[in-house]
Backbone:
């Protein structure tokens, strides 16, 4: 029986192999391995894609959040609000500035930040909110930005899973003070190694972040800020530029697959399907269903050779690394419920309708 993976990076590489080879050879011939025109070209094309003013690339999506927070002056004694049901990087970036992550639970239907609970979490120490556009769907940015503006705090979109998503017609990267992206290989736009970027409407903030990611430099040996070394490799920039040209098509293919799943799994008892808010046009980084007997469903699918995932099995407030924050079980009931019931089904642009039918049949057989 052929294995059907959760994500298939081989299939995508096969479809662009010769273009990738040419792009890599061009960088090797130029012998510019850090910086250079390939990085600037990718930044400007990704800014056009995001419909924002400027993009600054960096080493990875975790650093992207960290650098923007630093540029906004966030540090020890400050608090930054985010959600507990995300990859740990979101909170790690906050912690690494010296600030304290403060969690707000998510909505049961969309698994996105529950804006009804947001204002109560803001204190005089709060400097920023980092909503996560989880699974490729945008958090309710109008409500978040309204509270943020009124209370004088910044908003950074964690768009690591949402390259190209739209909210009320506007692309992520234009909705808050800044947005951060990851180009980890499995993301909707993935490098062949690590990579990240920050998107801005405000050029002054972009300039500050551009300095911070490159040793706080304003000239080769003139350092205005205590920065860090977090640059996008030139080889990765060349790879990303090739792949960016396909991203709208790939996101559309993900949408078609998601639509098939939604249609063909609609009547399965006790299976909760993803809900898309009316204002959203998601890019389906993951297709996540929920079931009260999730582990049994996962075991069944794995036995059928179908790759599945759990995003994420332990909410951040219950991670050992965050024991010092003093949170306890029961504090974020929706995030906790999601962690024990969610299951990610195979979803990638090259997945065929036949593959979807095979997954659907296996889910039906299991339940
Ligand atoms: C992948 C991811 C990150 C971190 O990105 P890296 O490039 O791996 O550092 C941050 N936030 C979310 C929600 C992610 O999915």
Residues:
């Amino acid at each position: 029986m052929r294995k059907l993976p959760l994500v298939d990076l081989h299939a995508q590489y096969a479809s662009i192999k010769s273009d990738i080879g040419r792009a890599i050879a061009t960088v090797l011939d130029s012998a510019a391995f850090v910086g250079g025109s390939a990085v600037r070209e990718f930044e400007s094309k990704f800014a056009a894609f995001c419909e924002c003013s400027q993009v600054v690339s960096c080493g990875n999506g975790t650093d992207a959040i960290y650098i923007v927070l630093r540029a906004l002056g966030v540090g020890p004694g400050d608090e930054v609000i985010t959600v507990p049901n995300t990859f740990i990087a979101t909170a790690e970036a906050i912690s690494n500035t010296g600030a304290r992550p403060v969690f707000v639970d998510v909505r049961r239907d969309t698994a996105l930040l529950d804006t009804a609970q947001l204002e109560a979490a803001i204190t005089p120490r709060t400097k920023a909110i980092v909503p996560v556009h989880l699974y490729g769907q945008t958090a309710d940015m109008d409500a978040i930005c309204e509270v943020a503006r009124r209370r004088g705090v910044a908003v950074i979109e964690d768009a690591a899973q949402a390259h190209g998503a739209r909210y009320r017609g506007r692309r992520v990267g234009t909705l808050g003070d800044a947005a951060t992206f990851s180009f980890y290989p499995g993301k909707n736009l993935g490098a062949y190694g690590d990579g990240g970027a920050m998107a801005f409407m405000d050029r002054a903030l972009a300039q500050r972040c551009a300095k911070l990611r490159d040793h706080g430099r304003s000239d080769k040996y003139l350092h205005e800020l205590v920065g860090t070394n977090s640059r996008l490799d030139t080889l990765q920039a060349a790879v990303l530029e090739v792949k960016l040209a396909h991203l709208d098509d790939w996101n559309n293919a993900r949408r078609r697959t998601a639509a098939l799943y939604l249609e063909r799994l609609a009547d399965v008892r006790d299976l909760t399907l993803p809900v898309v808010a009316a204002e959203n046009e998601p890019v389906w980084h993951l297709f996540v269903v929920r079931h009260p007997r999730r582990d049994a469903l996962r075991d069944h699918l794995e036995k059928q050779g179908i790759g599945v995932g759990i995003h994420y099995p332990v909410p951040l407030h219950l991670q050992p690394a965050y024991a010092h924050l003093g949170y306890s079980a029961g504090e974020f009931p929706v995030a906790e419920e999601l962690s024990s019931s969610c299951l990610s089904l195979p979803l990638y642009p090259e997945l065929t309708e036949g593959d979807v039918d095979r997954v659907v049949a296996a889910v039906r057989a299991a339940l």
The radius of gyration is 20 Å. The chain has eleven helices and 14 strands. The mean pLDDT is 97.
